[in-house]
## 1
Amino acid sequence: MKVLRRLGAAVVSAALIVGLAACGGGGAGGGTGAPAPGGPTKAPADLKVGVAMPTQTSERWIADGNSVKQQLEAAGYKVDLQYANDDIPTQSQQVDQMITQGANLLIIAAIDGTALSSQLAAAKAANIPVISYDRLILGSDHVDFYVSFDNFKVGVEQANALLTGLGVKKEDGSDGTATGPFNIELFAGSLDDNNTGFFFNGAMSVLQPLIDKGTLKVKSGQTKVEQVAILRWQQETAQKRMEDLLTSAYNDGSKVNGVLSPYDGLSRGIITALQNAGYGTAANPMPTVTGQDAEIASVKLIADGVQGSTIFKDARKLAEQAAIAANAFLGGQTPQANDSTTYNNGVKVVPSYLLPIETVYKDNIQAKLIDTGYWTAQEVASGQAG
């Protein structure tokens, strides 16, 4: 399977985790020497990690779950990996079971960042450390560590990619020759995902000055995150909203020039709506559409000149960082954070380790995704994971 092959390099890093346990941490994400919530425990073979992932409907979360599991198992831990199919009660029940069945640590990518308060209270009572994975868990003081990417920068780079597609900027960040005005529409993720605000605010920090200047026009008038959010990041919902926008705001013969989309799944729904409306021909070109996660179906669309860009967040490195943090906690230490100010969950500022991101366009798919082993040339050509 593709997921397992993509994890090959990660297994090597898992061996480093075992070394961290022996030396007591150190290095990026390693232990600081401070005691973790649970204190020193047992040998890895006697410890269990519960890993709660939101859904298997996205290839991204399948890859994340399998990567975290494989790295932890390579370090000797038992792993209970569960997917909740985007159902909040299911995830709550899964985390409850992980606690009652003896998990020594939890790694949680929450469906709803506010919906696990009772589970976190139970984990705290049982002295079980909690690592929030990519989506920050909100409203609880028992979130011990957060591993993610620089999510504000994700939004900034999506906005820059949109401007690059419009010709206002070049890929290197310098000014392009196009001056507009351009008609754009905005999409955001699910409001119950804390990342949604970071993505949207990052993007608007770049786009709003150009909207104010008149270079960009949001013809629908929908510029608030509450107006443009897509519940549960559903592709079908994004397609329906784009269809509605075309019917209501572009029924006068005007054209959409660009769409800010925060995630590849939404991008594909948006593109389907645009294609159904006649976009994508020589006479009616496809607007530039952004994305995120470098999902293989969207990478093919980028290679084919249909989707403009995507933000690549290497799930292998995120899983590695989660495993390093888990190893520190289970060894009785506190993981090393590289951000201790940004991520306030409403109760506390959660120590975080943030990873870098990269923007993928058609002309750098080879360097960013194929040469690094994330996808193969054959997979990009077919649009399917091998």
## 2
Amino acid sequence: MVSGLWDMHVHSAFLSPAWDEKVIYPLYIANGVTGVRDMGGDPNVLESRRDRIESGALLGPRLVLAGPFLAGAKADKQTISVNTAEEARQAVDMVKKRGLDFVKILSVPRESYFAIADESKKEKIPFVGHVPYSVSVREASAGGQKSIEHLSGILLACSSREDEIRSQGLAALAKHDYATYQNLGGQVMTTYDQTKAAGLFLQLAQNNTWQVPTLVWTEANSRIDDPQLQSDPNLKYVPASIRSQWIR
């Protein structure tokens, strides 16, 4: 017998409320997952669900919530725009005052990233998420980022040509040259430096920087055209709208 399991990276406010509440949440409980870390979404929806679960009105796991994404993008119900350091600090303050559990970063400008790190430390609220391309994993760990999602930035941080490749990547992104940016991935892999990686992993351990690799998600994407996956009986739990996207 084991204690309840946790899923450390979910998004449960993206699709239909009926699917999340009537299918996904009960499936968590049926499979022994009694807690989830919701990594970004509409805070009104998520807080309402958390209240209903805690009151017993809705069957589901304990929810730990990030609330809106902090991103260098247009603001909407699920995103706070943080294109400047001042916007970044205000966003952290809003997340803290609302009573959410942590701050979630997507891709943000370098200046905004370090403003988030500084303000989160002042407000005593964890910040987690992606490591922006303009920021190194070592800087993120030293800056207090509590967890890194999807191993973002890790492979680049293990490259013997990290600074050179980052510079090339930033130049490509500035020109919207996504083909060149994508091609840099191969260079990252072929310049893996085991000694450098060992030093990085030691720093992450010393700073207690968690990794949430989300390898199940990566594996599912890699197997999306596998005939065995297409005949998996568990597909009955997936909405028809999602299955139609997978088929395409």
